[in-house]
Amino acid sequence: LYLWHVLRLFLYLLLLRQVTCNRPRDPTLYDWRNWEPRLKLLDTVRYSCKGGYKRTDGATEATCTRDGWSPNPLCQAILSHCVPPPKVTNAVVVTSRQKEYTSGSEATYQCRDQYTIKGVATVTCINGTWEERNFTCTRTYIQMHLKLLQMLYERVQLGVGRITCINGQWEEEKFTCSPTGTYIQKHLKLLQMLYV
């Protein structure tokens, strides 16, 4: 039995001599605190990573294993921060402004007055990039007065006239129209002028 333990120890020591790790050629390494070109199994080396990277799992040393250096990879990219949330036409960000928008940060938008939101108004920072926004702000149209609709489709204006929308209500017409029973071809242009 003793001989068996000695043989196992000898084989283990022989294995230790056979397993070696070369100095890593990892471009993310900043400092490798050992100048030996090869190290043997279970040797450790202190190291640090370049800017923008951190040691994997908070390790302070790398260990030579049968599978190479551990941890693997030695360095990981630090998750990028996002720039402030992108501007969106007719909308403003309503979440409080942050110094840094880390991965997972959210920004919520609200449409400006007279605009209605369509879709989800929250976007998330994912690894330095804001996800694609999935909403729009569209103009809220004031419901037209029934008399105005009738005027557009059934009457032709005689003379110069004007009608104004005040606080969501159309004022009384200040001109006269005579019934013609004809369809006004340019009604779309007039509607656009009223709501632009």
From TrEMBL:
Cystine connections: C21-C64, C82-C125
Domain Sushi: 19-77, 80-139
Cell compartments where the protein resides: Virion
InterPro entries, sorted: ComplSys_Reg/VirEntry_Med, Sushi/SCR/CCP_sf, Sushi_SCR_CCP_dom
Main location: virion
Signal peptide (UniProt feature, chain positions): 1-21
Gene3D superfamilies: Complement Module, domain 1
Keywords: Disulfide bond, Signal, Sushi
Domain of life: Eukaryota
Presence of keyword Disulfide bond: yes
Signal listed as a keyword: yes
Name this polypeptide is given: Complement factor H
Lineage, uppermost ranks: Eukaryota, Metazoa, Chordata, Craniata, Vertebrata
